[in-house]
Write a structure and sequence with these properties.
Layout lengths: L6 H11 L19 E2 L11 E2 L3 H8 L5 E2 L1 H13 L2 E3 L19 E3 L8 H4 L28 E3 L2 E5 L10 H24 L7 H29 L2 H4 L3 H4 L7 H8 L10 E3 L3 E3 H4 L9 H4 L6 H4 L7 E2 L17 H12 L7 H9 L2 H4 L4 H13 L8 H6 L2 H12 L7 H16 L19 H9 L1
Antiparallel strand pairs: 1-2, 3-10, 4-5, 6-7, 8-9
Helix pairs in contact: 3-5, 5-6, 5-20, 9-18, 16-18
């Protein structure tokens, strides 16, 4: 094939999608090259810019938000991975689905075909992923007491028995993923024992029943354990009928708007019970060997039980400067880069405007750019000699808007009303679309956990 004159443009487009853009800022528009900050003009009369990842700013914002046990940070990350994996359309071919716009295709494609079915854990299943599942037992390739997933080859730690490599990004998330895999194996073994010995495909039946039971447990944990930690209390009390009056945001707004607000939650260190720095827990390269980390004793009660004295967190208008997932770049810079590549996603986006239009006026009026800027400046920024303007709010990407709302109106480290509505509605819509069976009649004594610490205790018993 002849290379056309637009080859350089094509290469530039690929580079832009994989994160080579240099113009990284939290706001839309041009002329704002500062990463991780709300940028002001050069006028000497203006207050200094806000750096949402500055140490002093972080400490001031998080001080009254440290109410949620820190483990929910990484449980939320696993939920986010189960909801979607947004892939730049320039990188991976994809099939157009019914309802997709042909004239103006999205910039990103959701590679998770079935949200909230634990596709992030199971992938395409044992017949397709022999590196992940033992081909005789159809169990996950993981030991009964394994702390993390197993390396497929001892000399190459990057090839592991894990379906979604994103679940290695932070060591705590990796441990949570391993716990879910062990939970499945325990259930599959019990189903296998309960099924008649003469069944021709007994192992596959046990696998399928275990997966369905795990998924029932997963949805119960999301609804009864995770959401109550992060939702505004008034939103959490909405009936399903009232909740369904609100529109459902699209996959890109969910993945790169709503879920990125959870990046406010990682703390700079965690009580294991020994204090461990976040920087040591973040995967720098797929080649990293995590055996040393897996030997660190971890008391899960400190991560998931409110009254155990563990590290607490919350959603605020700040990021931990210690959260540097790749190449020493802070998470706010990575998020800003993606937000710039995706284009404007602010309060004036169609999905967000549709939700705001349905909200009670006393809630939505507080989110008018002028009101939000004034309240945030007076209550948060001004005491530190800073300012947020109406024009900057109008240009902010939606994940930062939700963090600002949480800082002002979120109680006990939770989202504010808008962030809570977006999350609650999207999750309930995804769960409503899942079709599964209840296999408990085959093994009626199986555990039915409704909080994650119960799964931890089950697999460690």
């Amino acid at each position: 094939m002849k290379i056309t004159a637009t080859a350089d443009e094509t290469i530039a487009a690929f580079e832009g999608e994989v994160g080579h853009r240099k113009d990284q800022s939290w706001v839309s528009g041009t002329g704002c090259p500062i990463a991780g900050a709300i940028c002001h003009d050069a006028s000497p009369s203006r207050q200094p810019k806000i750096d949402f990842a500055a140490h002093s700013w972080r400490e001031a914002c998080i001080v009254d938000k440290k109410c949620i046990p820190a483990g929910y940070t990484y449980l939320g990350q696993l939920i986010g991975h189960d909801m979607g994996h947004a892939v730049p359309i320039n990188q991976v071919p994809y099939a157009v689905r019914p309802g997709d716009s042909v004239s103006s295709p999205p910039r990103r494609h959701n590679a998770i075909e079935n949200p909230l079915t634990l596709e992030t854990l199971y992938g395409a299943g044992p017949r397709v992923l022999p590196h992940l599942f033992d081909q005789e037992t159809l169990l996950f390739r993981i030991g009964r007491k394994s702390i993390i997933t197993l390396a497929h080859r001892g000399d190459d730690p990057s090839v592991r028995a894990i379906a979604d490599a994103r679940n290695r990004d932070v060591h705590i998330l990796h441990r949570i993923t391993a716990i879910m895999m062990r939970y499945h194996n325990r259930l599959a073994e019990r189903f296998f024992a309960a099924l008649p010995a003469n069944l021709a495909d007994r192992r596959m039946l046990a696998f399928c029943m275990a997966r369905n039971h795990v998924l029932h447990s997963w949805h119960a944990i999301i609804r009864k354990d995770f959401l109550p930690q992060v939702l505004d209390a008034q939103i959490a009390e909405l009936s399903m009928e009232d909740l369904r009056q609100y529109p459902v945001i699209d996959a890109v707004t969910m993945q790169h708007g709503l879920m990125r607000a959870f990046h406010a939650m990682p703390r700079k260190s965690y009580k294991f019970p020994e204090q461990r720095d976040l920087g040591a827990l973040v995967l720098r390269s797929p080649q990293d060997n995590e055996h040393k980390l897996s030997r660190w004793p971890l008391d899960w009660a400190l991560f998931f039980t409110p009254d155990e004295g563990g590290t607490k967190t919350g959603i605020s208008a700040s990021f931990s400067p210690a959260f540097r997932p790749r190449g020493g770049v802070t998470i706010d810079q990575l998020d800003a880069r993606t937000a710039r590549d995706l284009g404007p996603q602010g309060l004036d986006g169609p999905d967000i405007k549709a939700v705001l239009a349905q909200m009670p006026s006393d809630w939505s009026s507080r989110l008018e750019p002028g009101s939000l800027a004034q309240d945030f400046t007076s209550e948060v920024a001004a005491p530190m000699g800073l300012e947020l303007t109406e024009a900057e709010v109008q240009r902010c990407h939606i994940h930062l808007i939700l963090m600002i709302e949480a800082q002002l109106y979120g109680k006990s480290g939770r989202f504010g009303p808008l962030g809570s509505l977006l999350l609650y509605r999207k999750i309930e819509d995804a769960i409503a679309n899942v079709r599964m069976v209840d296999p408990s009649a085959v093994a009626p004594d199986l555990p039915r956990p409704n909080c994650f610490i119960q799964i931890i205790n089950e697999v460690n018993s």
